[in-house]
Amino acid sequence: MDEQLKLRINELAAKKKAEGLTSEEEAEQARLYRMYIDEIKEQLKCALDKAGIKPKE
Which of 3, 8, 21, 33 could potentially form a cystine with 25 if both were Cys, beta carbons 3.0 to 4.6 Å apart? Predict the structure, then answer.
């Protein structure tokens, strides 16, 4: 994930805690969180594949 996107996620989280978010910012935050989670899942799948661990069928 791009470093600027991570910074934006943190920026939105801090703003949410401090003063709240607009509905547009909440939608952006949800989209960025989904992108982040999907990327982490993909990294985990790749690591497990490299380790020879396969999902149950």
Answer: 21
